[in-house]
Amino acid sequence: MLSRVHGVHVALVGDMPSGDPERDLAVLRIVNEALHNALRHARAEHITVRLSSGAIEVADDGVGFDPDGAGLRSRHLGLTSMEERARELGGRLEIRSSPGAGTTVRLEVADDG
């Protein structure tokens, strides 16, 4: 549906391991925010969501940005929200991006399943 609505090819690779429903909901919210950011800001043509035991990645081929840019967190609260949710899960969130090189958001969490 995202592909039709936004004109972006979205691929889902892997399966979400089942675990604690509250943790899974928090993970889903992080993935949703990463997808939202890619669709709204990146001008991406392709987005891939990779699900595996202990890690979830959302990668796009969009315009990219500097994740350490001054004032970025004050303008884009979704990044801060994702980082806070990852900390609450006891997980680690990594945002890899640079201008012109797309973005990858990687969440590592312990597999409860």
Describe the model.
The protein is α+β, with helices and mostly antiparallel strands and 113 residues long. The chain is 38% helix and 27% strand. It has helices at 2-6, 21-42, 72-75, 77-88, and strands spanning 9-14, 46-52, 55-60, 92-97, 103-108. The protein has a 5-stranded mixed β-sheet. The longest helix is centred in the N-terminal third of the chain and has 22 residues, at 21-42. It is globular, with a radius of gyration of 14 Å.
Q: How would you summarize this macromolecular structure in one to three sentences?
A:
By secondary structure, the chain is an alpha+beta fold.
For the biggest β-sheet, the strand order reads 1-2-3-5-4
Overall mean confidence score, pLDDT: 86
Helix content: 25-40%
Beta-strand share of residues: 25-35%
Total number of helices: 4
| Biggest β-sheet strands, sense, barrel | 5 strands, mixed
> Runs with pLDDT <50, length 5+?
none
Q: What's the N-to-C terminus distance?
A: 29 Å
- Total strand count, please? 5
Shape category:
globular
Radius of gyration: 14 Å
Secondary-structure class: alpha+beta
Task: Please provide the ordered H/E string of secondary-structure elements.
Answer: HEHEEHHEE
Keywords:
5-stranded mixed β-sheet; alpha+beta; 5 strands; 113 residues; globular
Task: Describe the secondary-structure layout.
Blueprint: H1 2-6, E1 9-14, H2 21-42, E2 46-52, E3 55-60, H3 72-75, H4 77-88, E4 92-97, E5 103-108
Parallel strand pairs: 1-2
Antiparallel strand pairs: 2-3, 3-5, 4-5
Helix pairs in contact: 2-4
